[in-house]
Amino acid sequence: MKIKEIKIGKVSIPLKKPFKTALRQVNSAEDIIIKLIADTGEVGYGNAPPTAVITGDSQDSIVAAIRDTIGPKIIGMDVDNLEEIMTTLDGSMVHNNSAKAALDIAVYDLFGKLHGLPLYKLFGGYCNVMTTDLTISINEPEEMVRDSLEAVAEGYTALKLKVGTDAALDIKRVQAIRAAIGYDVKIRLDANQGWSPKEAVRTIRKFEDLGLDIELIEQPVTARDFVGLKYVTDHVETDIMADESAFGPYEVFQLLSMGACDLINIKLMKAGGLHNAIKIASFAETVGIQCMMGCMLESKVGITAAASIAGGKKIITRADLDAAVLLAEDPVVGGVKFNKNQLIISNTPGLGITDVRDWQEIK
Fold first, then answer.
1. 212: which residues sit within 8 A by CB, 6+ positions away?
2. How far is 269 from 276, CA to CA, in rounded Å?
3. Mean pLDDT of the chain
4. C-alpha radius of gyration, the chain, whole number
5. Which is catalytic among the residues 20, 100, 162, 313?
6. Structure pTM?
7. Residue 186 designated active-site
8. Sign of the CA dihedral with 27 first, then 333, 51, and 146 last
9. Cα–Cα distance for residue pair 93/106, rounded to 1 Å
């Protein structure tokens, strides 16, 4: 099976509610979805959401990178030669990791279909059912409480609260939510780089002193401040997770070498796809650091790919794969299924995706 053609398209999917973090607000998912067509007629699907404030990738840059630079280099390559394809993707141009991830996912989808193997089994086959948290956007405390109570009523047992715009207000937000939902539900906080190192330590210690039982704090400081991240990790009791800092394998290697964090959040759009996500998971496993599998605002194409590697690897102990649940519509036929807070991966080969409705081709 050889790669014959790449078709690039997009979907526009409204969100159920505005997605708000310390970095951005999004009202609809504007995802690039590619179709990698083999000489056998088989189609592999890939996904790349533009997340310029984190990855630096816009919709236009993703399309241009795939169409003009990266994509042409893998046309004619044999799908069975994963190593050569992934080496080509990595060496095709610097950065542009979301574009690389879309192609990487589509190649793995074809590989799984070629060999009749669901991807979670290709990556280790540890499990095909996992639990995800649900993200609560940053808002006034009263609105976050309402959203949290609604999520718990829907069956979620872990919430990821967006914080980071105002440390004093963040404390009020978390206090109000913990009082409302009780202590049987896990609370994870994501500051999205919103605090300085000392501010982070003061704020996290306050959470600890108040007995708010926070499971972990994600990316409290700016992505490039590895020293600051280590400072926070060393000066609080709560586990600290690197997200934006843990961009790809090289950055994760640095973080782990420094002892700068307690946990790693793996995201395909940062890493450049599944092949680099595997490297990150292996680094973390070697030193005994657990991982979360996270996501941007991917459609179910990207979520299925992320769930597949999370299902394959035992070291990935947590999932933040709620993006498809946040969407008002699901145009993707097949792929991972949702049952309240559970993701269920099918045993269909590859991603198990057969079509994407309302897909608009970009010439």
1. 174, 175, 178, 187
2. 10
3. 97
4. 20
5. 162
6. 0.97
7. no
8. positive
9. 18
At residue 110, the 3 state secondary structure works out as helix
What token pair was written down for 6?
A: 């790449």
Structure tokens at 15: 């969100």
- Give the CB-side neighbour count of residue 291, counting CA atoms within 13 A: 30
- The span from the CA of 92 to the CA of 99, in Å, is 11
Eight-state DSSP code of residue 242? E
Q: Give the whole-number percent of the chain exceeding pLDDT 90.
A: 99
- The stretch 319-343 carries a mean pLDDT of 97
Confidence grade of residue 363 (pLDDT, cut at 50, 70, 90): confident
Domains of the chain and CATH, by start: 3-116 (3.30.390.10), 121-356 (3.20.20.120)
Active site residue 17: no
Nearest to 99 by CA among 29, 52, 37: 52
Spatial CA neighbour of 236 closest among 261, 264, 272, 257: 261
Contact 121, 312 (CB under 8 A): yes
Catalytic residue among 100, 267, 270, 300: 267
Q: At what angle do helices 249-258 and 226-235 cross, to 10 degrees?
A: 40
